[in-house]
Design a protein that fits this description.
Elements: E1 11-14, H1 21-51, H2 58-84, E2 91-93, H3 94-127, H4 132-135, H5 138-163, E3 173-174, H6 181-185, H7 193-228, H8 230-259, H9 268-289, H10 292-310
Parallel strand pairs: 1-3
Antiparallel strand pairs: 1-2
Helix pairs in contact: 1-2, 1-9, 2-3, 2-9, 3-5, 3-7, 3-8, 5-7, 7-8, 8-9
Length: 311
């Protein structure tokens, strides 16, 4: 893959948050704390799920993989955005920009698929509890993870093979906190109407379809449980509420950004921050604060760690 010879742009300028200095300092410390909590929280979940034998179940296996994808998704853009808050020259090389877009859609596509796998896991656990261990075998779980990474790679490559060869000859200003497909496409020196339609069909439609499938799957679960007993419905709602929150907060901004990429709007920066900075933090918060088993296991691991250091 190479850039055409007529391309004269070697770097892009990320406007990001270019307001007053005091406001940028506030954002710097706020986003630094959020990113640190995101990395530490997701690492804590991965370590807890891996080390504790009581959490070696399909749900926690998928949760550990979700934590890894969340951490990677946030790392692609957040450190660069945080560093840019302290500098006036917020530039990124053209290949750095391409790398951001590649990994954003790689990890994003993989996470969308993994969330569908988690919804299937909850369906089997709630609606087919007697067959849960048989259906959710190690082979199927490994297949889910491999499939999610494969779909993520195919999803990003299907767009990058077309974008990486676009000629960029100015302007080179991206009005966002990171290089985003719709905004970078607009900077090309050729007409990109067809390519923008492809982005809608690829990223926007994929996000929308996955979101609808997940909502339908949760609705099927709730209806199935409701037909059995009202008590089971409240328990199912308690179990699924965390999943529904994560899914809504992850897919909502993606649908707004990628389903209508032709016209930028004032809230694009806020939505970008939401699904690259805020949402990856919600995974450890929601799944630890709402999960007593996870909390209990973390306390045991902390007690063992403290005891070993004292001895």
């Amino acid at each position: 893959m190479y850039l055409k010879n007529e391309s004269v742009v070697t770097e892009f300028i990320l406007l990001g948050f270019s307001g007053r200095w005091e406001l940028r300092i506030f954002f710097f410390f706020t986003f630094s704390l959020i990113y640190s909590a995101t990395v530490l929280g997701n690492i804590l979940i991965m370590v807890t799920v891996t080390v504790s034998s009581t959490l070696h179940s399909p749900m926690y296996f998928l949760l550990g993989n979700l934590s890894f994808l969340d951490m990677c998704l946030s790392t692609v853009t957040t450190p660069k955005m945080i560093a840019g808050l302290l500098t006036e020259n917020k530039t990124i090389s053209i290949w750095g920009c391409m790398a951001q877009m590649f990994f954003m859609h790689f990890f994003g596509g993989a996470e969308m698929t993994l969330l569908i796998a988690m919804a299937f896991d909850r369906y089997v656990a709630i609606c087919k509890p007697l067959n849960y261990r048989t259906v959710m075998s190690h082979r199927l779980l490994n297949g889910f993870v491999i499939l999610s990474w494969t779909i993520g790679f195919v999803h990003t490559m299907s767009q990058m093979v077309l974008i990486v060869n676009l000629p960029f000859c100015g302007p080179n200003v991206v009005d966002n906190i990171f290089c985003d497909l719709p905004l970078v496409i607009k900077l090309a020196c050729i007409k990109t109407y067809t390519l923008e339609l492809f982005v809608i069909a690829d990223s926007g439609l994929l996000s929308f379809i996955c979101f609808i499938l997940l909502l339908v799957s949760y609705a099927v679960i709730l209806v199935t449980v409701w037909r059995r007993s009202s008590e089971g419905l409240s328990k199912a709602l308690s179990t699924l509420s965390a999943h529904i929150i994560v899914v809504t907060l992850f897919f909502g901004p993606c649908i707004f950004i990628y389903a209508w990429p032709f016209n930028s709007f004032a809230g694009s920066n806020i939505l970008s921050v939401f699904y690259t900075v805020i949402t990856p933090l919600l995974n450890p918060i929601i799944y630890t604060l709402r999960n007593q088993k996870m909390q209990g296991t973390m306390r045991k691991l902390w007690f063992l760690l403290v005891s070993s250091t004292q001895n």
